[in-house]
Specification:
Layout lengths: L6 H5 L1 H6 L8 E3 L7 H7 L3 E4 L18 H11 L4 E3 L14 H10 L2 E2 L10 H8 L6 E5 L2 H10 L3 E5 L9 H19 L13 H12 L2
């Protein structure tokens, strides 16, 4: 199973050229176990969007990566099942249309709603607004790709959290290649040009420090 060419990401590159902060995440963690979901909820965030492949599952698998189950369940407990969804480019996207068989299989297997957006991140905001019925700035986007997940979240004012991929085993060759290039670009922007993530109204430097301290203590 592979993903087809992502023309939506190419189209959105113009936004990155104009505003390079759009591919910089607000927070970067090893994996979802390092995210303090209670702090995020207490801060006022209303919902969570997860990428699927290499964020919650191994590439193109339909089971939650076992070490992450407890953290995902904690997220569901805090935010509520209706406020936690998957938005993926391999399921529920244009690759999966018109019957969305992959999305339906994943919903049954994982027990989490998969948004059906008939396009690809960083496009697909309409499905998000229709589901959550709130301003996107109240939402959190979590994923392992800078030019899809992080760009998507930042374009619409979400809090963005980058997680390192679970494994390269079984991943699409071109995805691995692009992922490495994305990483190099982001590190260059952050370390040499000192570019930060866009401002988020519910996020502050103090909040980021609290989350970073939490991660160190785990």
């Amino acid at each position: 199973m592979v993903q087809s060419f992502n023309i939506e990401a190419i189209k959105c590159l113009k936004h990155v050229f104009l505003n390079r902060s759009l591919i910089i995440p607000h927070l970067e963690v090893k994996d979802i176990r390092n995210i303090n979901f209670q702090s995020l909820y207490d801060r006022g965030f209303k919902g969570v969007l997860f990428d699927k492949d290499n964020t919650l599952t191994e590439p193109y698998k339909n089971e939650i990566y076992n070490p992450y189950k407890e953290s995902l369940n904690k997220c569901l407990e805090i935010f509520g099942n209706d406020n936690v969804v998957i938005i993926s480019n391999s399921a529920g996207s244009s690759d999966d249309a018109p019957n969305f068989e992959k999305a339906n299989q994943i919903e049954k297997s994982l027990g989490i709603k998969v948004l059906k957006h008939n396009t690809k991140k960083p496009d697909g905001i309409d499905s998000v607004k229709n589901h959550f019925k709130t301003d996107p700035k109240n939402l959190i986007m979590i994923g392992d790709r800078y030019l899809t997940d992080i760009l998507f979240g930042n374009l619409y004012g979400m809090l963005t959290i980058y997680t390192h991929p679970i494994t390269s085993v079984g991943d699409n060759f071109f995805v691995k290649l692009i992922r490495n290039k994305e990483r190099q670009i982001v590190l260059c922007l952050k370390n040499y040009f000192k570019i930060d993530a866009p401002k988020n109204l519910l996020c502050s430097s103090e909040f980021e420090k609290i989350n970073n301290d939490d991660q160190k203590n785990k």
